[in-house]
Amino acid sequence: MGDSQYSSLTTFSPSGKLVQIEHALTAVGSGQTSLGIKAANGVVIATEKITGIYTICGVRPFGVSLLIAGYDDNGPQLYQDVYLHNFRTTDIVGYFFSFSWKASAMGKNVSNAKTFLEKRYTEDMELDDAIHTAILTLKEGYEGQISSNNIEIGIIRADHEFKVLSPAEIKDFLEEVE
Fold first, then answer.
1. Residues 13 and 6: beta-carbon distance below 8 Å
2. How does pLDDT run across 90-102, given as a tens digit for each residue?
3. Count of Cβ atoms closer than 10 Å to residue 48 Cβ
4. Closest by alpha carbon to 80, among 125, 110, 58, 50?
5. Euclidean distance between CA atoms 105 and 140, whole angstroms
6. pLDDT tens digit sequence for 109-168
7. Is there a contact between 36 and 45 (Cβ–Cβ < 8 Å)?
8. CA distances from 3 to 11, 23, 24, 58, 131 (A)
9. For the chain, how far is it from start to end, CA to CA, in angstroms?
10. Which CATH superfamily is domain 3-177 in?
């Protein structure tokens, strides 16, 4: 029997798997490479720019993974959230997971990105170092040339200011890592 007969989020296959959850997690894992790095004085979020519009199928659960950066009384914070929902039924059925990270990645190049982050991350790195590490991590598995036109970088500082770097600012950082 194929996996297609297990369309409910709460129906187990004979092998004990929640097949629809696995499909949603696989879909999340095939998205654009994105990463977050917690620095001593802020958080960096970096991603490949999304190019295109994608159709969502109601037959499979919809999976969303988010990197959430913030700054509170305990300093910079980075969370990765995963939300899975089945739009095939009118039931409000969903699963939500949230994890705190020092550095994390998601998307199609997740294993290479996480390995690279594990090697490069230090708890005392400053925002500029975290931006350099983010760029190098994106370069690690990117097909083609990284440029200020095909990546986006956002930062949050201790003053709680969130800023998306301009293409000119990203270009300056790219020149520094080359």
1. yes
2. 444 555 667 789 9
3. 20
4. 110
5. 12
6. 888 999 999 999 999 999 999 999 999 999 987 877 899 999 999 999 988 889 999 999
7. yes
8. 11, 10, 13, 16, 42
9. 52
10. Aminohydrolase, N-terminal nucleophile (Ntn) domain (3.60.20.10)
